[in-house]
Specification:
Number of helices: 11
Number of strands: 0
Order of helices and strands: HHHHHHHHHHH
CATH architecture of the domain at 2-128: Orthogonal Bundle
Helix content: over 70%
Shape: globular
CATH topology of the domain at 2-128: Hypothetical protein af1432
CATH class of the domain at 2-128: Mainly Alpha
Largest sheet: none
CATH superfamily of the domain at 2-128: Hypothetical protein af1432
Structural class: mainly alpha
Length: 183
Protein backbone atom coordinates (compact mmCIF):
# COMPACT_ATOMS: atom_id res chain seq x y z
CA UNK A 1 0.00 0.00 0.00
CA UNK A 2 2.94 2.38 0.49
CA UNK A 3 3.46 2.60 -3.27
CA UNK A 4 -0.19 3.39 -3.90
CA UNK A 5 -0.12 6.05 -1.19
CA UNK A 6 3.00 7.57 -2.80
CA UNK A 7 1.24 7.59 -6.17
CA UNK A 8 -1.85 9.25 -4.70
CA UNK A 9 0.29 11.89 -3.02
CA UNK A 10 1.84 12.72 -6.41
CA UNK A 11 -1.66 12.93 -7.91
CA UNK A 12 -2.68 15.14 -5.00
CA UNK A 13 -0.04 17.73 -5.91
CA UNK A 14 -2.20 18.57 -8.94
CA UNK A 15 -4.93 19.81 -6.56
CA UNK A 16 -2.69 22.72 -5.55
CA UNK A 17 -1.13 23.45 -8.94
CA UNK A 18 -2.83 26.41 -10.65
CA UNK A 19 -3.02 26.43 -14.43
CA UNK A 20 -0.21 28.67 -15.67
CA UNK A 21 -2.06 30.13 -18.65
CA UNK A 22 -4.78 31.53 -16.41
CA UNK A 23 -2.18 33.02 -14.08
CA UNK A 24 -0.47 34.68 -17.05
CA UNK A 25 -3.86 36.05 -18.16
CA UNK A 26 -4.33 37.65 -14.75
CA UNK A 27 -7.14 35.38 -13.55
CA UNK A 28 -7.31 35.53 -9.76
CA UNK A 29 -7.65 32.15 -8.04
CA UNK A 30 -7.54 30.12 -11.27
CA UNK A 31 -8.54 26.50 -11.57
CA UNK A 32 -5.98 23.85 -10.69
CA UNK A 33 -4.66 21.12 -12.95
CA UNK A 34 -6.74 18.60 -10.97
CA UNK A 35 -9.94 20.59 -11.54
CA UNK A 36 -9.16 20.79 -15.24
CA UNK A 37 -8.40 17.06 -15.45
CA UNK A 38 -11.64 16.13 -13.72
CA UNK A 39 -13.88 18.06 -16.11
CA UNK A 40 -11.78 16.89 -19.06
CA UNK A 41 -12.43 13.30 -17.95
CA UNK A 42 -16.19 13.87 -17.69
CA UNK A 43 -16.21 15.54 -21.10
CA UNK A 44 -14.12 12.74 -22.63
CA UNK A 45 -16.59 10.19 -21.22
CA UNK A 46 -19.54 12.02 -22.79
CA UNK A 47 -17.83 12.49 -26.17
CA UNK A 48 -16.66 8.85 -26.25
CA UNK A 49 -20.15 7.61 -25.39
CA UNK A 50 -21.68 9.80 -28.09
CA UNK A 51 -19.30 8.32 -30.66
CA UNK A 52 -19.57 4.71 -29.49
CA UNK A 53 -15.96 4.58 -28.29
CA UNK A 54 -14.51 3.08 -25.11
CA UNK A 55 -15.57 5.72 -22.58
CA UNK A 56 -13.74 4.01 -19.71
CA UNK A 57 -10.49 4.13 -21.62
CA UNK A 58 -11.05 7.78 -22.57
CA UNK A 59 -11.80 8.67 -18.95
CA UNK A 60 -8.70 6.93 -17.62
CA UNK A 61 -6.62 8.65 -20.27
CA UNK A 62 -8.08 12.04 -19.40
CA UNK A 63 -7.51 11.52 -15.68
CA UNK A 64 -3.78 10.91 -16.24
CA UNK A 65 -3.16 13.16 -19.26
CA UNK A 66 -1.59 15.92 -17.13
CA UNK A 67 -0.15 13.71 -14.38
CA UNK A 68 3.47 14.47 -15.31
CA UNK A 69 2.79 18.08 -14.32
CA UNK A 70 2.92 16.95 -10.69
CA UNK A 71 6.70 16.92 -11.27
CA UNK A 72 7.28 19.23 -14.25
CA UNK A 73 4.80 21.95 -13.36
CA UNK A 74 2.08 23.26 -15.64
CA UNK A 75 3.63 24.79 -18.73
CA UNK A 76 1.82 26.78 -21.37
CA UNK A 77 1.98 25.57 -24.98
CA UNK A 78 4.50 28.34 -25.71
CA UNK A 79 6.71 27.26 -22.80
CA UNK A 80 6.57 23.65 -24.01
CA UNK A 81 7.49 24.70 -27.56
CA UNK A 82 10.48 26.66 -26.30
CA UNK A 83 11.70 23.71 -24.23
CA UNK A 84 11.18 21.34 -27.16
CA UNK A 85 12.65 17.87 -26.82
CA UNK A 86 13.88 18.62 -23.31
CA UNK A 87 10.29 19.00 -22.14
CA UNK A 88 9.26 15.74 -23.80
CA UNK A 89 12.09 13.94 -21.96
CA UNK A 90 11.20 15.61 -18.67
CA UNK A 91 7.56 14.55 -19.03
CA UNK A 92 8.56 10.97 -19.82
CA UNK A 93 10.89 10.88 -16.82
CA UNK A 94 8.23 12.40 -14.58
CA UNK A 95 5.63 9.82 -15.61
CA UNK A 96 8.11 6.99 -15.11
CA UNK A 97 8.92 8.26 -11.62
CA UNK A 98 5.30 8.91 -10.60
CA UNK A 99 4.11 5.54 -11.86
CA UNK A 100 7.11 3.63 -10.46
CA UNK A 101 5.48 3.28 -7.06
CA UNK A 102 2.56 1.30 -8.49
CA UNK A 103 2.62 -2.47 -9.10
CA UNK A 104 4.43 -3.14 -12.41
CA UNK A 105 1.52 -4.29 -14.59
CA UNK A 106 -0.54 -1.29 -13.50
CA UNK A 107 2.31 1.17 -13.93
CA UNK A 108 3.05 -0.08 -17.45
CA UNK A 109 -0.64 -0.04 -18.38
CA UNK A 110 -1.03 3.59 -17.26
CA UNK A 111 2.22 4.59 -18.94
CA UNK A 112 1.10 3.01 -22.22
CA UNK A 113 -2.24 4.80 -21.94
CA UNK A 114 -0.49 8.12 -21.35
CA UNK A 115 1.81 7.56 -24.36
CA UNK A 116 -1.20 6.67 -26.50
CA UNK A 117 -2.75 10.02 -25.52
CA UNK A 118 0.46 11.95 -26.11
CA UNK A 119 0.95 10.36 -29.54
CA UNK A 120 -2.79 10.51 -30.43
CA UNK A 121 -2.73 6.94 -31.70
CA UNK A 122 -6.34 5.97 -31.00
CA UNK A 123 -9.82 7.43 -31.43
CA UNK A 124 -10.06 7.68 -27.63
CA UNK A 125 -6.80 9.67 -27.48
CA UNK A 126 -8.15 12.06 -30.10
CA UNK A 127 -11.35 12.45 -28.06
CA UNK A 128 -9.31 13.29 -24.95
CA UNK A 129 -7.28 15.85 -26.90
CA UNK A 130 -10.54 17.42 -28.09
CA UNK A 131 -11.97 17.31 -24.55
CA UNK A 132 -8.80 18.88 -23.13
CA UNK A 133 -9.02 21.82 -25.49
CA UNK A 134 -12.78 22.24 -25.23
CA UNK A 135 -12.60 22.18 -21.43
CA UNK A 136 -10.08 25.02 -21.53
CA UNK A 137 -12.38 27.08 -23.73
CA UNK A 138 -15.36 26.38 -21.50
CA UNK A 139 -13.27 27.58 -18.55
CA UNK A 140 -12.29 30.71 -20.49
CA UNK A 141 -15.95 31.38 -21.20
CA UNK A 142 -16.77 30.95 -17.52
CA UNK A 143 -13.99 33.36 -16.55
CA UNK A 144 -15.41 35.92 -18.99
CA UNK A 145 -18.87 35.45 -17.52
CA UNK A 146 -17.36 35.99 -14.04
CA UNK A 147 -15.94 39.34 -15.15
CA UNK A 148 -12.42 38.64 -16.40
CA UNK A 149 -11.53 41.07 -19.19
CA UNK A 150 -12.18 39.07 -22.41
CA UNK A 151 -9.14 40.59 -24.12
CA UNK A 152 -6.95 38.78 -21.56
CA UNK A 153 -8.43 35.49 -22.72
CA UNK A 154 -8.39 36.04 -26.50
CA UNK A 155 -5.16 34.09 -26.97
CA UNK A 156 -6.81 30.90 -25.72
CA UNK A 157 -9.62 31.19 -28.23
CA UNK A 158 -7.43 32.03 -31.22
CA UNK A 159 -5.02 29.17 -30.62
CA UNK A 160 -7.75 26.54 -30.28
CA UNK A 161 -10.25 27.60 -32.91
CA UNK A 162 -7.56 27.81 -35.57
CA UNK A 163 -5.58 24.65 -34.80
CA UNK A 164 -8.22 22.25 -33.41
CA UNK A 165 -11.60 22.86 -34.99
CA UNK A 166 -14.39 20.60 -33.75
CA UNK A 167 -18.14 20.75 -33.37
CA UNK A 168 -17.84 21.40 -29.64
CA UNK A 169 -15.19 24.09 -30.04
CA UNK A 170 -17.33 25.74 -32.74
CA UNK A 171 -20.34 25.68 -30.37
CA UNK A 172 -18.30 27.25 -27.56
CA UNK A 173 -16.98 29.90 -29.95
CA UNK A 174 -20.52 30.70 -31.12
CA UNK A 175 -21.68 30.97 -27.51
CA UNK A 176 -18.85 33.42 -26.81
CA UNK A 177 -19.72 35.49 -29.89
CA UNK A 178 -23.36 35.69 -28.80
CA UNK A 179 -22.35 36.69 -25.30
CA UNK A 180 -20.09 39.43 -26.62
CA UNK A 181 -22.85 40.65 -28.92
CA UNK A 182 -25.24 40.79 -25.95
CA UNK A 183 -27.55 38.17 -27.41
Amino acid sequence: MDGIIAFLRAVGRLKGLPRTGWLEAGVEGPETVAEHSFRTAVLAMVLADLRGLDAGKAMRMALIHDLAEAKTGDLTPEQRRRRGAAHTREEEEAMTLILSTLPEPLAESYHALWREYREATSPEAKIVIQADRAEMLLQALEYEEAGVDPSRLDRFWHAETESHPSELIEALTAKRRKRRAGV
